[in-house]
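Possible regression after last week's pipeline update?

I re-ran a chain I had predicted before the update to compare outputs. Posting the input and the new output here so someone can diff against the archived version. Not blocking, just want to make sure nothing changed silently.
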Amino acid sequence: MQIVDIAADRANLAEAWDRLIDARPGAASLYQTRAYYEQCAAVHPHQRSRLFCAWGDEGELTGVVPLVAGVGRLERDIRGRTIWRSGALKSLEIGLRDPLLPEDSAVYRELFQFIDDQFADASMLRFSQINVDSHFYRSLQALPEVRDRYVLHDLEGCMKRLIIDLPETFSAYLGRFAAEKRYKLRRIVKKLGERCGTLVLERFDRPEQVTELIARASSIAKASWQAGIDPDQIGLRDYHEAKLKFMASRGQLAAYILSAGGKDCAYTLGYEGCGQYEYVQPRFDRSFAHHSPGTALLVLMIEDLIGRGNVRRFSFGAGEYAYKQHFANDVETIRSFYLLRKTLRNRILTTTDRFVYAGLEAVKRVARRRGTASLPVE
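New output (post-update):
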């Protein structure tokens, strides 16, 4: 095992990391790439970062996990309003998706020993969107290094990540649907153009386009149903421009804006890499809601992505909204959670958080029964 800072990685591990990604088609995601974590380090230079590296018997790199220290909290909110929030806790972000490691419990134990050595002051470890069917997740709670030192605290229980396996042609993709469904999808796009004006789909994937992307996407976001309830909405955070420019410079940005009759009506940020497309922060202007601009955008951007031939897997991210189910043909069960060190303070915090979460879920169930829950419109 070798320990290297992210900054030092460029000279010593760059090629090995890239080869590792290339050797795992379909298994690795762009969130595990060197370019993505260089972006994290560049945009948040104040955060302490380390790499855990696993090496094979012949000296080859077999796994790499970037670790980013920061400050976190347990918190619950509803409709953008924070209901409960704990005090600040020193935290460690293990990354998004499953760690890029060989399926070997011995390597997992080394990872947690490394965390204890390098981040002894971290009170909680955050894991995001881990596949519950993965070897890593199945092995996690059986590890003595985890079982004896940490308590697993669930954030929202198991969730679904809906996925489209993209074929080589758009006609082949549409051919997966029944004739009536194909007609409806084409009709949605056609009607939006007929009623609102000529449709123009624009792709933003270059650094010089980012300033315009943020300005136009912010206008749509302010007119969306999520306005005021999403603290990370584009335009509200200073780091968005730096992040998106960096990703564009590495060929990982693939955002889209759809306009109708010269007026922007829908957008999505999107990240592209490792043969996969990550669908991020979709928004549409509510004044177009009766014309399904979000659905029209999805149809057109899927057609564009297939035509470009760079991606074969389209991930909707966490959540099971109905519109995602209309398009997807595969699903994964995922879970986001914390591992908190076994201290009295953390036990009190996790107990409180579970109590608050149970209360919020009860309120949501009542709202759904009464038909007052807020749901995204297509």
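Follow-up from reviewer: compared with the archived run. Residues 205 and 254 are 5 Å apart (CA to CA). Marking as no regression found.
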